[in-house]
Amino acid sequence: KRKENMVKTYIDQWLYTFPWSQVISGFWQKYPNPYSGHILSEDVYYRTITDDQTLLTKRLLTKTNKIPRWGERIFSRGSVSTIAFIIEESICDLKQKTLTTITKNINLTYLMIVDETCIYRPDQNDETRTICEKKVLATSELFGFKTVLETFAIKRYKKNQELASLGLEFTLHKLFLPHSPLPPVIDKMPELPGENKNWKQIFEFCFSSLFFLQKSNMLENY
């Protein structure tokens, strides 16, 4: 392979001690949770079910994350955090019992593109459990920063995907084990200053973000 075509790849797996039907139900109800402080909003903008009982859904997620000090020079005005617009496409096959999600950022693409694919399916050895297989590709074409950006993206993804999995676990316990103690919150990502405290500001941001995306036709191709 030519060096310039190489991208950073990360593969992982997560085991949920809940049956597939419950995991899928919890998947659509997992926000908010103690681990989702970096998720500002999530909106379904397309959903349909096909004749063969396949549920197709598209969601727009807005996320924020702190960036390292070396990254401040790349972003305008020395911002210490970035807002990412993420498109999530999901295919839920009710007959085969698989949920496949594909997520990709639609802004900040001049810096990097992060593609994630997750497949949820029943554990072949135990139908009361569900396995989620995850694969992410990080690609950057920014001259002089390719390696460092791709490495940073994978490192950040490892942390975020663990928080996402723990968040879904928390939701599943809350939904389906209501009389049992909720699992303790561990390794929570530090909140940004003022995050989740000024709800008016968050709502204003979400509405302005959707208005911007609608006016710029950014969602037309997704």
UniProtKB/TrEMBL annotation:
It comes from the Eukaryota. One of its GO terms (cellular component) is mitochondrial intermembrane space. InterPro entries: PRELI/MSF1_dom, Slowmo/Ups. Residues 7-180 form the PRELI/MSF1 domain. It holds the Pfam family PRELI. Coiled coil: none annotated. PANTHER family: MSF1/PX19 RELATED. This is PRELI/MSF1 domain-containing protein.
